[in-house]
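Quick question about two entries, pasted in order.
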Amino acid sequence: MDPSVVTALGLIFCVSCLLLISAWRKGFGKGKLPPGPTPLPIIGNLLQLDTKNINKSFCELAKTYGSVFTLYLGSERAVVLHGQKAVKEALIGNGDAFAGRGSFPISETINKGLGLLFSNGERWKQIRRFSLMTLRNFGMGKRSIEERVQEEAKRLVEALKNTNGLPCDPTFIFGCAPCNVICSVVFQKHFEYQDKKFLTLMEYLNENLQILSSPWIQVYNLFPSLIHHLPGIHHKVIKNFRALNDFVLERVKEHQETVDPNDPRDFIDCFLMKMEQEKQNPKSEFIIENLVSTTIDLFGAGTETTSTTLRYGFLLLLKHPQIVDKIREEMDQVIGQNRSPCMKDRSSMPYTDAVIHEIQRYIDLVPTSLPHAVTQDVKFRQYLIPKGTTIIPLLTSVLYDNEEFPNPEQFDPGHFLDESGNFKKSDYFVPFSIGKRACVGESLAQMELFLFFTTILQNFTLKPLVDPKDIDVTPISNGFNHVPPCYELCFLPSQNM
């Protein structure tokens, strides 16, 4: 290479280093950005992070830099919030300022900022307001949706009976039930558990969850413009989302041909009616592209969070059979065998309620939440966080707080029980996040978890294939989601059924 070119490149590199270090130093002055490790050019603080367990890296850095600190994820500046006080102060106390959606490049590649989960500004406000209202109108949190969940729980029991007590991997069965519940709300559709198209959709969702939680996607999100053009599993997740997009678009076209403005059947009908109302508004956010993306958001989030919690939860129950015995004892006293569980039972079943909460706390399903962003320059504590800065609320640091939950690394339902055995609520229970970006389906997910867990345990005895003490509950992925290891078990019909 020409010596002059080498010299020029060297000068550019040196200047880049100086500029980055200068910006870093200025950012950590009084009233500026929170403290943090010195970033390197291009890679930022990548060397201080373990991409296989990034939330653990954040917790370690908090020991040095405090509960609010700055990192550079590649060239992207991010402020990490560690601990319940910092997370609550930002997302609740300064809710509007911290309500933006932060950078998540793989999602931006897939949905271009459309829909509910990854949109911003006025688009997000309108889509979220509409979604909440429509979901409530279709029974979210009401008796009508409870009846749908109970019916699906019965179908789930029948599917498990068809395993004939033989070893089975519950991944797809546990995915089918919550998926059908959200399908009934979104596009008034119920699938048979063996429907090939349905199983393909479940495979896409399950595969995407594992890919999005992989170290490769962490690297993609750090260097999207480079990694996007390289071979890798990110192409698979993009392909899967395109297939989901085609599936939903097909449902939308069917609805367009049959929608009755006087009798909306589901979420898609309501969105189409809203589109008709705003067809003269050239700036309307109610367009086909937002309908498809929002439906996929509801479909995916409403399926994978609950199904993964079920799968992880039953693995924990296999490892702790004494906990299952206590749940059965409580169920026998409150429900018996002659009727199906209902939500009214939950208040009379504090131990079971505590177990389900402890499952959600312990598995720490989305450890770093979805990234937030500040919508304006924000004075936060003694710092000034510039508009657009990515905010990472570290939910792990709240769910694993060792003062609120003694011995947080242990699976212990006692974390949610008082001295008298009554259920004990906690402000540190944040698996659905908090604030204006909290999960819109939290009430539905809690209902599904209680009814699915109790209905299954009412009808089956769980038989592990190995000694409980040898069961490994360590997640196989620690990225965007905690993904449980694959396992098999036997569902043996209860003797007194």
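Here is the second entry:
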Amino acid sequence: MKNLLLLKTIAIAILLACKSPDVAMPDSKTASLVAPRLIWSDEFTKNGLPDSTKWTYDVGGNGWGNNELQYYTARRPENARIENGKLIIEARKETYEGKNYTSARLLTKTKWEHGRIEALAKLPSGRGTWPAIWMLGEKVATAGWPLGGEIDIMEHVGFDEGVVHGTVHTEAYNHVKGTQKGQQIIIKDVTSAFHLYAIEWTADQIDFFVDNQKYYTVQKSVLGNEIAQWPFEQPFFLILNMAVGGNWGGQKGVDESIWPQRMEVDYVRVYQ
């Protein structure tokens, strides 16, 4: 009897605690048995160049497959620097290595397979800007694009301000063929406020979020099991860049009066 009374007392205490405004009730739709674990991050706390233990650069002005107008530089603070707790990726109108614009494209040295990847960022404005937070599979070095796979966590083009794109590209589904798989969400203040861009990536699907609002999902069961359809069973690295012009970003020309323009990133975090 004493044990029964004790159990009832404990049960009542739990119910009262759950009704308290200071105790959050778990949401049955989002509760997980295992809390996400932070496995990598850059909080951009130290002014200067990006952390060379975490980031490397793509360098050059070859158009990057999209007829982009900028030259990507390395370890040049005019184009990539930490400033007041933010990573600044800045595109500038200047003559450099035969190009009329400069910018930066940073790659993580670490790669991940599955998890939640997120970045808190404020985007540039103006016709001709094309910032992106995206990922490529490590096999792209040997298999090439698009067989290596691409996950675009966030893309935005300045001539269509406020429209944020989340997309995947594979051998079977890509923009060259016009078969890419993606969706858009309207965020009106992307150029004046920071927003959280994220994916949650498992063996079976990839979910796309802005400010923790899910707006798109791609599923392996829908796209197919072959590597040409679902190349997302391999480690991917993260890329932060800002292009100028190009096949998409420059679709309606480039406003030459707006430069320099910058993408600001408050932090990047990866959970598993």
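Reply: The first strand starts at residue 38 and ends at 42. The chain has four helices and 17 strands. Hope that helps.
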